[in-house]
Amino acid sequence: MGLIHLIGCTLAITLHVSALDNGLARTPPMGWLSWQRFRCNTDCDNDPLNCISERLYKDMADRLAADGYRDAGYEYVNIDDCWAALQRDPVTLRLVADPKRFPSGIKALADYVHSKGLKLGIYGDMGVYTCGGYPGSKFTLKTDADTFAEWGVDSLKLDGCYSNTDDFTVAYPIMEFYLNRTGRPILYSCSWPAYQSTPDYPRIAEFCNIWRNYDDIDDSWDSVKSIIQFYGDDKGNFSSVAGPGNFNDPDMIIIGDKGLSESQEEVQMAMWAMMAAPLFLSNDLRNVSDRARNLIQNKGAIEINQDPFGIQGKRVQQANGIQIWLRPVVPAGSYAFAILNLNDGGYVSSVSFSLAGLGVPGNDHYYLNEVFSGLYLGGYNVNDTFTVKVDVSSVFFGKFKKWG
């Protein structure tokens, strides 16, 4: 029966004229996601403030609304794994939220989040179980899509544990088809390429709004550096499929947690902006310093991240732990750039370059501003040399805005 079901759905998708025609993620989505900070903590008896529960998500919605995050663009409150009961409803086969930790149910939680001017995201899995061992969606894709829509869910993150990765090329599009058929706009986050050695990125971009393609982020500098290196290497040219409606997802923002220094947090914020990455915070918004909150809400960085061109930045130079990244942004002919010093020791490095030396054509003139502060640093021709000093584990984040 499962095979017949898959064949029927594949035929339906073939006849579906416009894949992923949901109008979402025209710029990288922004919000909050529980996984990195709170993992699969289900011990509400001993840790009621930090367990995966409706209380946690309401608390985060409150903070997003009250502390300036929503106004800065952070709009999704995303539930991750371990929210469900271990068994589906025996009659309807629908997913059920854990009755002790989500006594009001997901629909009521969605209503609460919506009342704050925010959106609710939820987690599922393409396999028979989620990564945490909860019910997966392998044989219930339509039922689960309909359930999420009826609950008022605005985003679905679909993982790939306990599944045959050979099925992904069919199974992920099937879920996209069912989500669209509900008539509710539901942002679709796929883990499709994260489980494959040679992902077909153009096909993935046909059916997913965002997609994870690398390891889960840890609360550490080594983890952040490894992600930056992976995105700089750009194996399979995955940067080429990024654009309005479709973005690569290097995983969560860990600014405000415990693993990064202040300069390393600036590196993550700059690089997630350069990479046109979804900005999903995974921290405890109830206990974030003013400095970290101001960085997360930095207008200049968010403006680069949300640039309407949606072009993913690329690494254009690297040597001796120094990297230079470049990203075309509005107005046309302008560029954001980041100079990274990824060395963990040593002295401040002096880095010099010209836009022409980075491959920028023409003979245009530019205004130069530092992004985080907005400080104006002068005018430059495309052939002029710009020099900046960058400390270890630090970044210089700038924008060359074309004159006229």
From TrEMBL:
Keywords, A to Z, come to:
Disulfide bond, Glycoprotein, Glycosidase, Hydrolase, Lipid metabolism, Lysosome, Signal
The record's note on quaternary structure and interaction partners says: Homodimer.
Annotated Alpha galactosidase A C-terminal domain residues: 310-391
**GO function term, MF aspect, one:** alpha-galactosidase activity
The cross-references to InterPro entries, in alphabetical order and at most eight, read:
Aldolase_TIM, GH, Glyco_hydro_27, Glyco_hydro_27/36_CS, Glyco_hydro_b, Melibiase/NAGA_C
Matching Gene3D superfamilies: Aldolase class I (3.20.20.70), Golgi alpha-mannosidase II (2.60.40.1180)
Its GO CC terms are:
lysosome
Report the protein name in the record.
Answer: Alpha-galactosidase
**GO terms for biological process?**
glycoside catabolic process; lipid metabolic process; oligosaccharide metabolic process
The leader peptide range reads: 1-19
**Superkingdom of the source?**
Eukaryota
Family assignment?
A: Belongs to the glycosyl hydrolase 27 family.
